[in-house]
Design brief:
Layout (H helix, E strand, L loop, with lengths): L1 E12 L2 E13 L4 E5 L6 H8 L7 E6 L2 E2 L5 H11 E5 L10 H10 L5 H14 L15 H13 L5 E5 L7 H18 L2 E6 L2 H6 L2 E6 L2 E7 L2
Parallel strand pairs: 3-8, 3-9, 6-7, 7-8
Antiparallel strand pairs: 1-2, 1-4, 4-5, 9-10
């Protein structure tokens, strides 16, 4: 489903060039529950952003579902991302003035979905993530774990084949973080959705079926655990 071939990505930090990725090659199959792991500065978030069509690589190629996303222009990437990818962020990135329902429904409003279907799909996914009855609450009235559940619902409501999660447990206590991981694992098994995480949290790695370990912009190890 995802093919990453000899990808190089550098950043400028003042006058210093940071070599974030130094020739990474990787393939991820449909339905995987994969952790991109490594210490801070290893390149894991950079790799996730490149897969997510957020950043532009310097050299190499990335293909998703047979389409060369690394060759797309900004408008094409935006359209591809909207149709095919879901995102979960460590800071939740919810719109504070919108309710849980509105935060999730907003994603569908950007697509060609009828008002009736928006309502049905939004309510169904909120129920799936355990937020039935909380749809009218704004983020400030929800706990961190509940906000992350809204973020998961928002990522899943458009039925993406791939969900990218950047440090999804970073701002949660261990019990809530594990509940969130169990929820995402359940969605992975029930829907066949491909989940890719960036993390340095050992608990996240324990749940992963595959761990790709990055160090200094290179793959140090790649292990299938199940």
């Amino acid at each position: 489903m995802i093919k990453i071939d000899k990808v190089i990505k550098n950043y400028q930090n003042g006058e210093t060039e940071v070599k974030a990725l130094r020739g990474v090659s990787l393939e991820i199959q449909k339905g995987e529950f994969t952790s991109i792991a490594g210490p801070s500065g290893s390149g894991k978030t950079t790799l996730l952003n490149l897969i997510g069509c957020i950043d532009k690589l310097d050299l190499g190629e990335i293909s998703i579902k047979g389409e060369k996303v690394s060759s797309m222009n900004k408008k094409e990437k935006t359209s591809f991302r909207r149709q095919n990818l879901g995102f979960i962020f460590q800071t939740y990135n919810l719109i504070p003035v919108l309710s849980a329902y509105e935060n999730v429904a907003f994603v569908l409003s950007l697509l060609d979905v009828s008002e009736k279907d928006v309502h049905t799909r939004t309510m169904n996914v909120l129920k799936e993530v355990g937020l039935e009855g909380m749809e009218d609450r704004k983020p400030a009235k929800l706990s961190g774990g509940q906000q992350q559940r809204v973020a998961i619902a928002r990522a899943l409501v458009k039925d993406p084949e791939i969900v990218l999660a950047d440090e999804p447990t970073a701002n949660l206590d261990s019990t809530t973080g594990e509940d969130i991981l169990k929820l995402m694992k359940s969605m992975n098994e029930k829907l066949g959705t491909t989940f890719i995480f960036s993390t340095h949290d050992p608990m996240v790695m324990d749940y992963a079926g595959r761990i790709v370990l990055l160090h200094d912009g290179l793959i140090k190890s790649d292990k299938n655990r199940r």
